[in-house]
Amino acid sequence: MTITPNLLPWQEADWQHLVRYITGQRIPQALLFAGNKGIGKSRLAERFAHSLLCSETDANGLPCGRCHSCQLVNAQTHPDYIRLNPEEPGKTIKIDQIRHILSVLSLKPQYEANRVVIVEPADQLNISAVNAFLKFLEEPTERTVLLLITDKPSRLPATLMSRCQKVYFSRPDPEQVKQWLLDQGIKKDSDLLLSVSKGSPLLALDYAKNDTLELRRKCFDQWLDIAALRTHPYIVSEQWVKLDPGLLLTWITGWVTDLIKCCFQLPAEKLINRDLFEDLYKSAQTLELSHLYSVYDLMLTTRNRIDTQLNKQLLFEELLIEWARLNEK
After folding, report:
1. Distance of CA 39 to the CA centre of its chain
2. Which of 15, 85, 144, 205 has minimal CB crowding within 10 Å?
3. Does a cis peptide bond (omega within 30 degrees of 0) precede residue 121?
């Protein structure tokens, strides 16, 4: 029985890179998996972890699915397979969690293969947790491999980055992804889904299954209503705070970016939100480019603050009030 997740069509080259660590018997102490959200980093990390834990991998580095270690992984009870995540979505990984993990890592692995610790998202480690990990990497225990996964490698301290081998995932070939989406039963809007998801296949699939494009359109109409003074930023921010803040910021950033492109008379196919071209182009005719850049700067600041403990509704209010003021000028 095969317990490892199947490779996605665009992951073959990345997998072969990882397999060479195993077949060459030069497995790094720490590996950083970095790339856009929704391209399958976690799936590949899990596949690699299963291979590291298996005692009888085949010539291609795949787990056998028969040994006792594979059976424990399949049952999610392997004592040498540890996952470290925030206790709550959007929260940081705390020092107490790291201390517990380090107490386990101070002992030898219970089985003869490797011990694997997956940390996701690694950018949610707070500074105390990072320092604790750095001490571990300076004096690592035997046969222990850390797999850190992040969509935001720039948020990781340089001291931690320098101690990791990096595996960067690029955007898959669009034609390959469109065929994969078709195989998943997605028969329409594949170009738009890929554009809105910034080329991330798993995000595109999730958007299609959850009617995310419809929600995006509703939020865009509210954004236009604020510009036309048909509604108030406070009302909209109260509704938006119930949604995924990261997703909303991605959408708004895309709208502002496309408005800037419209100011430069770029065609619809150059926009992220191609289906919104007419509304965006019309709005761009009434806006000052310099003012749009100021909103974009505020967007970047808001993105850096969205994962903090600051009130999300107040962050959206600030952003939407600035958007309303821009349209009054």
Report:
1. 8
2. 85
3. yes
pLDDT digits over 277-315, tens only? Answer: 999 999 999 999 999 999 999 988 888 888 777 889 999
**Alpha helices, H only, 54-157:** 68-74, 95-105, 127-138
| Regions of the chain with pLDDT less than 70 | 1-5, 329
The secondary element (H helix, E strand) that includes residue 163 is none
Q: Judge whether 262 lies within some domain.
A: yes
**What pLDDT score was predicted for residue 5?**
66
Angle formed at CA 111 by CA 109 and CA 112, multiple of 5 degrees: 100
Q: Which two tokens stand for residue 218?
A: 């509703």
DSSP letter, residue 153 = G
Question: Across 97-217, where does the E strand assignment appear?
Answer: 115-119, 144-150, 165-169
CATH value at residue 74: 3.40.50.300
Burial class (CB in 10 A: 0-12, 13-18, 19+), 32: buried
CA distances from 63 to 18, 23, 74, 290, 327 (A): 13, 13, 11, 56, 59
- Determine, yes or no, domain membership for 303: yes
Are 146 and 245 found together in one domain? no
Domain that holds residue 225: 211-328
For the record, the structure tokens of 157 come out as: 């301290």
What residues have CB less than 8 Å from 272, skipping those under 6 apart? 195, 196, 198, 254, 257, 258
* Sheet strand arrangement including 165-169: 81-84, 115-119, 144-150, 30-35, 165-169
From the number of C-beta atoms within 10 Å of its C-beta (0-12, 13-18, 19+), residue 164 rates as buried
DSSP 44-57: HHHHHHHHHH-SS-
Instruction: Say which DSSP state 297 is in.
Output: H
pTM: 0.87
Distance of CA 47 to the CA centre of its chain: 18
